[in-house]
Each structure stands twice: as C-alpha cells, then as structure tokens.
Design a protein that fits this description.
Blueprint: E1 12-24, E2 27-35, E3 40-42, E4 44-47, H1 54-66, E5 68-82, E6 88-101, E7 111-115, H2 117-123, H3 130-141, E8 148-154, H4 175-190, E9 195-198, H5 202-215, E10 219-221, H6 227-232, H7 235-247, E11 251-255, H8 260-268, H9 276-287, E12 294-300, E13 307-314
Helix pairs in contact: 1-4, 4-5, 8-9
Protein name: NUDIX hydrolase
Organism: Flexivirga aerilata
Domain Nudix hydrolase: 11-137
Length: 324
C-alpha cells in the first residue's frame, strides 16, 4: 500500500498598515518608519490582534508606530510574501491622512520620515513597498487620493418578529446584534466618522449608538430611513443620502434591508461606469448586505459633483469574506 502524501497549505499571518500622506508646499509626501531592531525603512504596519479587523489593525498600528491618528482612505495593493517555516504573510494597506495625535514614538520605532515619492523610492528597504507607493502616486495624479468616507450600515441582528409582541419600531437587537454594534466601534473610528444618520427604529439606533457614544456624537434620526417611512415616501431615503453628500463630512448611514436598494442605486449613479466601485455596488444591491455589515465608500467631492471611487465590505465575523 502506497502512503499518500499530504500537502499542507502554508499558514498565513495577517497584518495591516497604511501609507500616511500629506501635502507640504503643494508637494506630496509619504511617511516611512524606521525600526532600529531590523534597521529597515517601511510603511507603518503590524499583525492583527485576535478578533481584530484588517482596517482596525491598520489604524491601530499606524497610531502605535507613528504617534499619529489616521483617517483610513482608499485601499491600496496588498503584499503577500514568504516567511520562515513556510508561512506566508499577507499585509493589507490603505492610504491615510493624519487626523490627530502627538507624533510621539514608541521604542519599536525611532524615526518617522516624511519624504517625497522620489525620496521614498530610494529610502525604503523592501522592493515590495514600491507597489503601494505607486498606487498612492497614481491616485494623487488622478485626483482620487483626497477622499472622505461614507459608510452605509445595515442594522445588526434583532429579536425575531414572531418572538416580539410589541411595535416593530421598538424591536431591539439580540445578543449577536449587540456584539456586532460593539465591534463596529473601532471600524468606524478607523474612518474617522463624524456624522451618524440613522433610522429611528430601535434596531438601527442601537447598532450605531455605541460608536456615537464613544466618539461623543449626536445621532441624527431620520424617519425616511425607516421601513415605515420608506414605504410611505420612498424618495425621502435618497434625499437623506444626498444631504450627507452635500455636507461632505465623514459620515455613516444606518438603515434597513428594504431601504438599501434605493440608497445603493443612488450611490451607484456616482461611480464611473464599469469601475470596480460600480460593480461592487451592483453586486451588493442584487445580493443584499449582511445584517450588521458596513459598506465603506470613499468619495471625492461633494454635492452634485460627488464621485464614489472605491467600495469595501466590512462584514461581520463569520460572514464570507472575499479576498480583496
């Protein structure tokens, strides 16, 4: 009898980071960090903590390594490479701007250098980092780097209708929905959300209330985003979306499954035909969003000229997560 050879797939180590950028004297600059332990220059990044999302890890690592609190922007190409013992390391990156922070460094990092793209090209220690640099440069040339986030959220899991004797308007989140609401806090914080608009229904309100409380924000309730309000006057939902686009502030909108197709179709009109953003919005509109899912759109411009340039799905743990 011949023994069968079992091929083991290499373990993948997940990590996340961001390319911090700014403009100084109208010149694009990016931030590289120096690790004295390895004497190398690279992007701010690090491994995910257990249960942490990619984007939350990227924001946390940038803060820890640079002392600056980032606002996560457009997604950048990822890096995948081999490590010792047959492991693979996958690093997902985003562009990011500085929202705040002191710039105080920890022991692991002893210097942060703001460099022009040409200077960064000669400074970083790993050829693979050129992929993210080129993506930032290309986005800047195409005027797609300076964005603001709009996050569309479907409320979390709620007590079943058949098990609820009260008004459907007051039907609360169940335990799974409450956990998802708490898990959304670091996700929305990574995007620096400053304005939260929600259906006044209890299950929507409770989905975004933990983030609003943590960020010190007032929730703005709109009946037009509720199931009842949408059924009575469907056009109101997209009017609320349009008002958010007019403000141009990092914002989140929380609503219900029956309302989402109208909201997403309105946003899809603001994408380039045939673009990845248009395709993703079309797919999500057809298939629907998971309960508790956050759909992150990066937007250029405001009002009538607003354009959606990227779309990412931040899905609850346990949901199918496609490879970016």
């Amino acid at each position: 009898m011949t023994a069968r050879t079992v091929t083991r797939r290499p373990t993948t180590v997940p990590a996340a980071g961001a390319v911090l950028w700014r403009r100084k004297n109208d010149q694009l600059q990016v931030a590289l960090v120096h690790r004295p332990k390895y004497d190398d220059w690279s992007w701010a990044k690090g491994k995910l903590d257990p249960g942490e999302t990619w984007v939350s890890a990227a924001a946390r690592e940038v803060l820890e390594e640079t002392g600056f609190r980032p606002r996560i922007g457009i997604p950048l190409p990822r890096s995948v490479y081999s490590m010792q013992r047959g492991q693979l390391k996958e690093i997902r990156y985003w562009a990011a701007e500085v929202m705040g922070g002191s710039g105080e460094l920890e022991n692991e990092i002893d210097e942060v250098a703001w460099l022009t793209p040409a200077q960064a090209q000669t400074r970083f220690s790993y050829v693979r980092d050129a992929l993210q640099l080129q993506a930032v440069v290309d986005a800047d040339r195409g005027r797609l780097l300076q964005t603001w986030p709009l996050v569309v959220i479907r409320h979390g899991d709620a007590v079943a209708r058949k098990g609820w004797s009260g008004d459907d308007w007051d039907r609360p989140l169940d335990d799974l929905g409450k956990r998802r609401a708490r898990a959304l806090v670091p996700v929305l914080a990574a995007y620096g959300i400053e304005r939260v608009v929600t259906s006044p229904s209890a299950r929507c309100y409770a989905t975004v209330q933990p983030y609003a409380a943590a960020a010190g924000l007032r929730l703005r309730t709109k009946r037009g985003l509720s199931e009842e309000g949408f059924a009575a006057e469907p056009a109101k939902a997209t009017r609320h979306t349009d008002r958010v686009l007019e403000h141009g502030e990092p914002a989140a909108i929380c609503t219900h499954r029956p309302v989402l197709p109208a909201v997403l179709a309105d946003l899809r009109r603001r994408t380039a035909p045939g673009s990845a953003a248009a395709r993703t919005l079309g797919e999500v509109t057809r298939a629907g969003m998971d309960k508790g899912e956050a759909l992150v759109l990066q937007v250029v411009g405001t009002g009538a000229t607003a354009r959606v340039v990227s779309v990412e799905r931040q899905r609850p743990a346990g949901a199918f997560l496609p490879t970016l």
